[in-house]
Design a protein that fits this description.
Blueprint: E1 4-11, H1 23-26, E2 32-36, H2 44-57, E3 60-64, H3 82-103, E4 107-110, H4 114-122, H5 124-137, E5 142-146, H6 149-156, E6 161-166, E7 170-171, E8 177-178, H7 188-200, E9 202-204, E10 210-212, E11 217-221, H8 227-241, E12 244-245, H9 248-255
Parallel strand pairs: 1-2, 1-11, 1-12, 2-3, 3-4, 4-5, 5-6, 6-11
Antiparallel strand pairs: 7-8, 9-10
Helix pairs in contact: 2-3, 3-5, 4-5, 7-8
Length: 256
């Protein structure tokens, strides 16, 4: 069983006076945080406050660029060309990095959000354009992709890829995640068992099929109503099983 993994969370998804999630409670429970950059959620003030929480918690910071779709929370499909997708990621990465620089906090990774994440998995030309653009702009930055064929293909090209799995999402028989339009509370125990299955190298799809998985990081979504309880339960189980956690870059370095 894998004994070192990164635990990450999507956060910074409030907007103006509207609050989503409890970032101040969740971020100290994870190793890496993916901060919304203003297109699917977030705004400059929210980016600022989330960066401060991450800095104080010692969490590794990443950009979480999404579709230009505040009303749909970036979960609705929008047709983007490879160049448009690359430009969208660069624009949002730059926005977060500008604020992060004021804190002296490095932006160590980029993880596409929602429908944009799905687009990189379905369209190789989009994935290549996004990764090429980010590698040229910030070659030291890790790219987070769903563990599977796309992550393997991009990593084979020599790019720093972090393979991701999810504790709180269902999988189909092909190893693709099933996105909920509106996240509901989920059993912390069920999510924890799925996280442990990831460490053992396989999980069970929603149809009962065994899906192989090899991940460097496991995600918990900050917009899930009981995200705090899920993260706490996972961490307690990791501690009981002797599983260590560390930021993405450390996990990659240890795995070689």
């Amino acid at each position: 069983m894998q004994t070192l993994v990164d635990l990450n969370a999507d956060a910074g998804e409030s907007f103006g006076r509207w609050t989503l999630g409890a970032d101040d409670q969740l971020i100290p429970l994870v190793n890496s945080v993916n901060i919304a950059c203003g297109w699917h959620a977030g705004d400059p003030g929210t980016m600022h406050s989330t960066l401060r929480i991450a800095r104080d918690a010692g969490a590794s910071v990443g950009a979480h660029p999404g579709m230009p779709d505040l009303a749909g929370f970036g979960r609705r499909a929008i047709a983007l060309s490879p160049q448009e997708a690359a430009d969208a990621c660069l624009y949002q990465f730059g926005a977060l990095r500008g604020i992060a620089d004021s804190f002296g906090v490095p932006v160590t990774h980029v993880k596409p959000h929602g429908a944009l994440y799905g687009l990189t998995l379905r369209d190789e030309s989009v994935a290549d354009a996004v990764v090429d653009a980010l590698a040229n702009a910030a070659p030291e930055t890790n790219i987070v992709l769903l563990a599977g064929h796309t992550a393997q293909r991009i990593a084979a090209k020599g790019y720093p890829v972090v393979r991701e799995a999810f504790a709180d999402l269902d999988y189909d028989d092909n190893g693709h995640i099933v996105i909920e339009p509106v996240p509901r509370a989920k059993s912390p125990q069920q999510c924890t068992e799925q996280a442990m299955s990831v460490l053992r190298g396989e999980l069970v799809s929603m149809n009962g099929e065994t899906v192989p998985v090899d991940a460097d990081t496991i995600c918990v979504h900050g917009d899930r109503p009981n995200a705090i309880e899920i993260a706490e339960t996972i961490r307690a189980r990791f501690d009981a099983e002797g599983v260590g956690t560390a930021p993405m870059a450390t996990v990659l370095a240890k795995r070689g």
